[in-house]
Amino acid sequence: MSLLRRIQSDVVGGEARLGPIMLKVRLLAARLGSAELGDWVKHESEGYPDDVEVPEYRSVGISYTAHFSGPFGAGISNAPIPPALVAKFAGEEWNTFELRQGIAAIDDLVASARAERGVLNLNCANLILLLQGNVYSNYACNSVTGTISAASLSDVQHAVRSRILELVLELENSVPQALSVEMDGGAEEDLKESKDKVTQIYQNIIHGNAGSVSGFNSGVLSSGSQNVINFSAGDSKDLKRFLTANGISGEVAEELTEIIELDGPGTTVEPLGKRAKEWLSKNIAKAADGSWNIGVAVLTNVLTEAAKRYYGLT
Question: Which of 193, 215, 218 has its CA nearest to residue 204?
Answer without folding.
Answer: 215
